[in-house]
């Protein structure tokens, strides 16, 4: 777990005697140019390492960006072709639907015409029946008149 800044960190450094500090300082002073050279070499290596890491990251992100752009382009092309195919199917459906609706409308118009013809024949038939009833009644009246006018032979 990460330690908080406010808390004191435990030290594993043992306290040294003053004579040891002195020898360390003396050693440090005596090889100061070696230490500076070493620090410079470490700093240069660290900078080179950071620069290499930055270049590697740039290459990685460049490759990722290129691959992402390629994938997006392919997905966009697939989406476009799918939309075009869907629109083609939909337009065919609409045309087929219009043709079928027109055929259905034509059938309904034919049914309506037949219905009007049947209604006309029905009214004509009723009129003919009424006319035949009048003819029958006239014939019957004519017979009764003829019978009354003719002498009866009993």
TrEMBL record:
Top-level taxonomic group: Eukaryota
Protein name: Uncharacterized protein
Organism: Mycena maculata
């Amino acid at each position: 777990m990460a330690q908080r800044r406010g808390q004191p960190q435990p030290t594993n450094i043992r306290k040294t005697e003053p004579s040891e500090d002195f020898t360390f300082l003396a050693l440090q002073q005596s090889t100061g140019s070696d230490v500076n050279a070493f620090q410079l070499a470490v700093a240069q290596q660290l900078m080179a390492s950071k620069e290499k890491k930055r270049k590697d990251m740039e290459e990685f992100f460049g490759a990722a960006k290129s691959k992402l752009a390629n994938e997006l382009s392919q997905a966009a092309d697939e989406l476009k072709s799918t939309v075009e195919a869907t629109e083609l199917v939909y337009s065919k459906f609409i045309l087929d639907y219009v043709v079928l609706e027109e055929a259905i409308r034509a059938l309904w118009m034919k049914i309506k015409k037949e219905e009007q013809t049947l209604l006309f024949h029905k009214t004509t038939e009723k009129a003919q029946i009424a006319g035949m009833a009048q003819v029958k009644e006239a014939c019957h009246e004519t017979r009764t008149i003829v019978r009354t006018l003719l002498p009866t032979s009993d």
